[in-house]
Amino acid sequence: MKGRHAVVILSGGMDSSTLLYYVRHTLLRKVSAVSFFYGQRHARELDSAQAIAFRCGQIINAPRGPISDIAWTKVDISSVMRVFPSALTGTLAVPEGHYAEESMKQTVVPNRNAIMLSIAAGIAISVGAQEVYFGPHAGDHAIYPDCRSDFVRAFSRAIWLANRWTPVRIRAPFLSLTKGQIVKLGLDLHGPYELTWTCYQGGNVACGRCGTCVERLEAFAEAGAQDLLPYADMTYWRDVTDAKKTATA
After folding, report:
1. Which parts of 114-231 are beta strand (E)?
2. Fewer Cβ atoms within 10 A, N terminus or C terminus of the chain?
3. Which stretches of 45-97 are DSSP H helices?
4. What is the pLDDT of residues 148-171, one digit of tens each?
């Protein structure tokens, strides 16, 4: 594919997978995808990331069978990140239900986005890409400082200053979108949500109770669509959502 080349940070979750399809099929960028193992207990999301990258760039009529024009790379940064305290990488319990400020803070991995974006920018320079895309959205802003527009602007400027001979820009096109709006976009792009993995627990089936499962199920409900991913508990999210509505009524 001719035109601009982009690196997309792909976790294997719903938001970043939609972003990959958006960059590849809407913005028509040549894409390289990068995923990170940072010691997360839900490392199975990396298998999802690889499968989604292949599906997004799949060339069905290739002479020797299906291939993909999206290069996928997994980067292991677990030796560094394991020293950072977080419910995602340590022994702390993963919070259930809607994420409030204190429970959401437990899922913060310190400086994660800055570290991943720095590595992704280095990859972009090495493969001749001009942009790095990642997928923060409107629901992330309240607690995660590295998912806000001021961080994106400042970090993009820093990356540009650090690599002025081969400038790379940081892009976050979903900053103003809700998760429900992201689901609607992904469905329009025929994204394979059944391949994605969102749950922060490391089980074989999504728990349906952790904050990411609850928010994912709510996003599909907002979009008026059915989530094809199986869950161990399909009623919990409705109970906590009803309780939240009652409390705020």
Report:
1. 131-133, 169-171
2. C
3. 45-56, 78-81
4. 899 999 999 999 999 989 999 999
- Cα of 30 vs its chain's centroid, Å: 19
Residue 244 token pair? 């939240």
For residue 42, what are its two tokens? 């839900």
| DSSP code for 96 | B
> Which string of DSSP letters, residue by residue, matches 10-34?
--SSHHHHHHHHIIIIIS--EEEEE
Q: Cβ distance 35 to 72 under 8 Å?
A: yes
For 30, phi then psi, to 5°, come to -70, 135
Which tokens belong to 245? 């509505």
CB 129 within 8 A of CB 7: yes
CA distances (Å), origin 64, targets 53, 56, 57, 70, 160: 19, 18, 16, 17, 41
DSSP 129: -
CA 128 to chain CA centroid, nearest Å: 23
* Residue 34 main-chain phi, psi, to 5 deg: -130, 135
Taking alpha carbons only, the member of 235, 226, 198, 211 closest to residue 18 is 198
Give the whole-angstrom CA distance, residue 104 versus residue 144. Answer: 8
